[in-house]
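Sequence in, structure out. Go.
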Amino acid sequence: MAKVVSVSKSHKHVFSKETVKSIMLIQGEGVEGDAHQGKTVQHRSRVRANPTQPNLRQVHLIHHELFDELYADGFTVEPGSLGENITTQGLELLSLPKGTILTFPSGAQIAITGLRNPCSQIEHFQNGLFDAVLSRDNSGRLVRKAGVMAIVLTAGQVNSEDDIAVTFPEQPFEPLRVV
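Output:
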């Protein structure tokens, strides 16, 4: 069963976010009190490129299974460490199609918009981590493992230990791309 392991936020543009008991999702904006909350892009490099583009990166999710994989490779990564707002378990985030809706017990809903492209700050967090969250599949294509991004469809609270209901979009499914 898919569930929330942890939730995090930070009102500052910092790499890691503070783990909290719950977060409030604001429709069309993101996590209340988080530096990336807003209708338009809030990520600093994207603001420099075009501050009027819509914010498709309102909520960042990472699967806890990635932390287990990184730990086995000698890294120490905990929920919130990589800047995610929601750490999940039992949900193959990277395999979800674009537009998949995740619903939480409060009624809050988010829609997956795409993959997170790891930035160079990850290397400053722990040496070698950048390469560890990137790999190549059997065909040689680059695989990004640093989580997915989403927008908030319906406001509501998300708590650690919440169950997550998954609703897939209509087929044909559109694969996730970097947003």
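Check: The chain has one domain: 3-167. Helices lie at 44-49, 64-72, 121-125, 129-132.
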